[in-house]
Amino acid sequence: MKFSRRNLLQMGGAGAALASFLPVLNSEAQEEGTPKRIIFYVTHNGTIAEEYHPDGAGKDFSFRRILSPLEPYKDYVTVLGGIDLDPLLGWAPHVGHGMLLTNVEPRQEDRMGMGISLDQFLAQSIGQETFLPQLLTGTVPYTGVGGTYMKWQHFRGPADPVQVEPDPYAAFDRVFAGSGSSQDGLIALANRRGSVIDGVRADLNRIRGTLPQDDRFLIDAHLQSLREVETTYAVPPPVCDGPTLEGGINVRSNANIPQISRMHNRVMHAALRCDATRIGSMTIGAPTNGIAHPWANANVSHHGLSHEGTAEALAMLININTWFFEEIADLVGLLHSTPEGDGNMLDNTLIVYMNPLSSGQKHTKTDLPITLIGGKWHFDTGQYVRFSNEPIGKLLVTLAHAMGVEVDSFGDAATSQGPLSGITI
Amino acid sequence: MTGLREFSFLRRRPGGLFSGRPLATCTGLCLALALTGCQGVLGNSGEEAALGEDGVDEVDGSENGALGAGKKALNCETPQGSRSLPRRLTQREYRNSIESLLGSTIDYETVLTGDSTSGPFATNHGSPASTLSVEKYLLAAEEIAAAAADNLDDVLPCEPGDRSEECARAFVDSFARLAYRGTLDDTAAELLMDSFRSASAADGFASGLSLIIEKVLQSPYFLYHIEKSEPGDGSMVLEPLTGYSVASKLAAFIWEGIPDAELLQAAERGDLANAEGVRAQALRMMKDDRAAESFVSFIEQWFQLPQLSQVQKSQEEFPEFSPSLVNAMRQETATFVRWMLQNDQFSMEQLFTSNHAFPGTELADYYGVEPMSEGAPLEFEAEERYGILTHPSFTTLFSHTAETSVIRRGAFIRDHVLCQTLPEPPANVNTILPEVADGVSQRERLQIHTEDPSCAACHAFIDDLGFSLEHFDALGKYRVEEHGLDIDASGALTGTSADGDFSSAQGLVERLLESEETTECAVSQWTRFAQRRSASEHDLCSQRELVEEFLASGGDFQSLILSIVESTAFRFHDPSHQPEGAIL
């Protein structure tokens, strides 16, 4: 029986209902037509166009260096060109990430997103079918206080940013807490948490009443977050075995970024395999990321490299961006090698790679690097398609449709009049 | 996690360069705009006002008056103020609260989500609680409660071994009252006892007690600072904050934590209803070790030193680099701050000009000197050490992996020591620097900034400040040459009331200390930290008074701390004020 939070709550959480869940190795999503999954995967600071964009066009294309890790999955890949962050063309530098998934012009001072992002919209629309409406994880550096630019790219609404989980062990615990625990223990814990959350909610409502009208949005945001936490923690989690992760890795050390990325990939893959969620968001780095990538032979700050201009710097940037796709290919490989129905998990998954800049050096926001992997139920995959200055909003509409959510526009309606044409089946 | 800059009071002005038209490179058409790009636009960060002679400040009417074009006329005859939005505890406040309440500590950087900022400071002012934050509060509370349940006799205010309901009630009365910073009422206490009773009936005393802790640590009464005032008859714009609100603010500012029992009692007695009472408590609190740690935290945040944990250096250029060495540099600056406090020398002058060095073993080894012994700092030559801007912690942080960063050091001084906000670089500007050739200094490499007028407009305000520190390499060591050429650390300070040439870091710092802008900026940074938000327009009169008092004290920070807590802005608020940027 497929796990669904809604089902479980209707059953009143009785222990017997849980007995039918068994740990499985193959994908759980078997009946009623396999549900589709989407993963947003964002990296930053632009790319190197001459090594990113494929040779050729249409179905007759070949990868250059940066996308070459995707070679084994070429017939699943749809590389898109000519999509712009309109109308941000004349804006200041690192400003695209607040608009990339919202299609709403961000607030100038702090790049804060001023609309709901597509991943959050999908989580609200279709996320209730699974234990977790979504899983957001990121291989992001732990930094101290400060930083010139806003880093957020996911928003529940205007100025309401959603944070990604940087710690793969914490992400694992959230998804696979049910594995290896006694059912009675899980139920007792869920009940206890439910009662704590009820108490917190009561306190929030009391405080809300004492606040000026204009301040209540803060309590409302907390109440909404509390409801979301409740749907995860006040129900017993599904029993499904997660991946085996190497223990004891210091997740705050930049030197461990390669291992952390691989752990995030494994947790995400297993979460989808267990049908614990169908909406994922992943990221490596952040806008103006100052991390060096010595494992990719790039020993200088990523952001700094974009403004160096030497041949050496260019080589390092290509290395870094190729490494990003090695990480994506690792995740794709996990999905591709897991049998599902008549095929594999990748057949029912769409990974959307996006970068809020095209040239890191010039901070351009036209012809963004956007590559789709999978989504075969909706897209005519295995091609390189160049559009002519299409706005990001239309891509977001296209993606919503791919997930079965029929919207006419997304964010700013003027720049998202319907989906992109010519790439769907 | 990276910080979220507070939206309300940031006064970044994009300026005339950003007309919305795409720009390939910054030449030609944008030239005319660029020349005025930094003039007339480079404002202060919205808080400083010119000090007028007659109490009313003159608007700077000159369009080419360059910096300071944002100064406004101030009418300070009627009292005015603003107020704070509810704000959640910062990571450090949370950690310190737990330590005060239960004697245990947590690794706040991994256990909690990151804070939003006001200027360089963690504040969480008006920052909504994300789902991840709320989840982390839940998991943290469970972990902390479980640890307390394993140490009941240390945590309970009862005789060892007492596990009665009366003991639980005593625990609620002390623990929850302190955690809620005084605002525990009977209803809340009774609800906590209800939870205790049902949990302990099912699973025993420890289970009940840990349930109390879990609820308290996730309650908004603990997590949120909410300013409350005593309602007046409506005739006054400003209302006095309640005793508990003032106590909370004092504890957040001076201890980065929660009030102790004595401070709460002072609040209940009404001692905090006047400036003298607040001063007395502040003086008491400043003698506690927690105060030194809070002020170390202030300096570290001001100069962004926590980011040192992320620093990476080229092994080729800097074989001695290690995270441990860089951490030792951070510790040196912290030791410097504690030394200033212990010796009653916590001042602008000491902070920016002291030639004292405080190396432990590792750092001393790196410098090739003897480590300091307890309480006896080393003294370096002025050219090698002249205040915090020459500390290895600062110069290492504001550098690239293999070389110094003139731009980052210069921009930091302009933004955070002068509080003069620079406009953004133009949209699609080509930011490629010329290649590094042998025998070429940083200054020569950045020549294009002065040669190309479209770059010079803004870089005239940045580069020279960075050149002043060129004697300090990318891993904090003093040097006299770069690539075989003598270092030239000369330049000119522009855009301030103390403009002029300098030939070294010492020269620049001396000019900075003479400038009004630096004094006003220092006061701004302190009030941001103290108030946990940036100042609004309505706080400018209060800011001006603080600047005057600060100058009268000779730039003494301990005096400033007391001035701040005694000020109207700290103890009153305008309940009708709507903080900018709030989503309605």
Main features:
heterodimer, A: 425 residues, alpha/beta, seven-stranded mixed β-sheet, two-stranded antiparallel ribbon, 13 strands, 32% helix, globular, B: 584 residues, mainly alpha, three-stranded mixed β-sheet, two-stranded antiparallel sheet, 27 helices, disordered N terminus
Structural description of this entry:
The complex is a heterodimer of chains A (425) and B (584). Chain A is globular. In chain A, a hairpin with a 2-residue loop joins strand 9 and strand 10 (343-344). Chain A has helices at 5-10, 15-18, 49-52, 118-126, 168-176, 183-210, 216-233, 257-273, 302-306, 311-336, 392-402; strands spanning 37-42, 55-57, 60-62, 77-84, 135-139, 155-157, 160-161, 279-284, 339-340, 343-344, 349-354, 370-374, 383-391. In chain A, helix 5 (168-176) packs parallel to helix 8 (257-273) and helix 6 runs antiparallel to helix 7. Chain A is built from eleven helices and 13 strands. Chain A has a seven-stranded mixed beta sheet, with helices on both faces. In chain A, strands 2-3 form a two-stranded antiparallel ribbon. With 425 residues, chain A is of the alpha/beta class. Chain B is mainly alpha-helical and 584 residues long. Chain B contains 27 helices and 13 strands. Chain B has helices at residues 29-37, 91-102, 108-111, 131-149, 152-155, 165-179, 186-203, 205-218, 220-223, 243-255, 261-269, 275-286, 289-302, 323-342, 348-353, 361-367, 392-397, 406-417, 442-445, 447-451, 453-459, 463-467, 505-514, 516-531, 540-552, 557-566, 568-571; strands spanning 4-5, 87-88, 116-118, 121-122, 224-225, 239-240, 356-357, 378-379, 481-482, 485-486, 491-493, 500-502, 572-573. Chain B has a three-stranded mixed beta sheet. In chain B, strand 3 (116-118) and strand 4 (121-122) form a beta hairpin. In chain B, helix 7 packs antiparallel against helix 8 and helix 24 (516-531) packs across helix 26 (557-566). Chain B is globular. Mean pLDDT of chain B is 85; it is low at 1-36 and 40-70. Chains A and B meet through strand 7, helix 6 and helix 7 of A and strand 1, strand 4, helix 4, helix 7 and helix 8 of B.
